[in-house]
Design brief:
252 residues, mainly beta, five-stranded antiparallel beta sheet, four-stranded antiparallel beta sheet
């Protein structure tokens, strides 16, 4: 997979003069909602029609919450603790699926099916009938869990300042992909592709597609060299796993 982006979050108004760092890795899924439209042309031509795909994919989002606490037995947020939210991938982030003209090879006004697959070719549900070429095609849609690997460095500085430490995040997210399969067949009772059918594989979301993190504004923080935790959340704010203890600020 290709690697993506950097985000920074300052938890004080001053610059860090001394910095230390910890690395956080997390594997998680986010939901991709996909809507595909297919446009046919040259339906009765030899050797067969062109099928052009258009569409959009929307992600459910990934956030991180930085938690500063002077309580080493942290189990919940107290009034003296500080939390700062970082948006890694915004909820509803849209990715446009590039037009993908695919040449057919089955003449005679074929039936056209579409099937979602993962990057390794594993089928994600049954083929969906879009329609017959000359009659116009319906859309295909679905929601799928996209594996995402987070590799993040958390850096702390000015840990003992009264205003609280300066914490920055940087790193990458490796996104899994999503593919599709166009099937052209003259068999009205189609149940699976045969040697007489034409199968064309297309990439909807490239494995490792690059996205840029959104930057966050400064936030004051807990002083006294606090313990630092990170909590990953979904785009809707639901916790993904438990908070991860990174260590005390000066010990990162």
């Amino acid at each position: 997979m290709r690697r993506i982006g950097v985000v920074a979050l300052a938890l004080s108004a001053c610059l860090a003069t001394v910095a230390s760092a910890a690395t956080v890795t997390k594997s998680l899924n986010q939901i991709a909602t996909v809507n595909i439209s297919a446009t046919p042309s040259g339906c009765e031509n030899n050797p067969g029609p062109f099928i052009t795909l258009n569409g959009e994919l929307r992600l459910s989002g990934i956030n991180a919450k930085i938690l500063l606490s002077n309580n080493v037995k942290f189990t919940h947020m107290a009034s003296a603790d500080v939390a700062a939210d970082v948006v890694l991938i915004p909820a509803g982030q849209a990715i446009t699926i590039a037009k993908q003209p695919s040449r057919g090879g089955v003449g005679g006004n074929p039936w056209i099916y579409f099937q979602f697959t993962d990057p390794s070719g594993r089928e994600l549900g049954a083929p969906v009938l879009l329609g017959r070429c000359v009659q116009g095609l319906t859309n295909a849609s679905g929601s799928f869990a996209i594996p995402s690997g987070v590799n993040m460095t958390v850096t702390g500085g000015d840990c003992t300042n009264s205003g609280g430490p300066n914490i920055t995040l940087s790193g990458e997210i490796r996104m899994g992909g999503l593919n599709g399969r166009i099937i052209l067949t003259n068999n009205a009772k189609f149940t699976h592709a045969t040697s007489a059918d034409v199968v064309v594989d297309v990439v909807l979301l490239a494995d490792g597609q690059s996205l840029t993190f959104a930057k966050q504004p400064p936030l004051g923080g807990a002083g006294g060299n606090p313990w630092i935790w990170v909590q990953f959340t979904s785009g809707s704010g639901d916790a993904i796993g438990s908070p991860i203890l990174l260590g005390r600020c000066v010990q990162l």
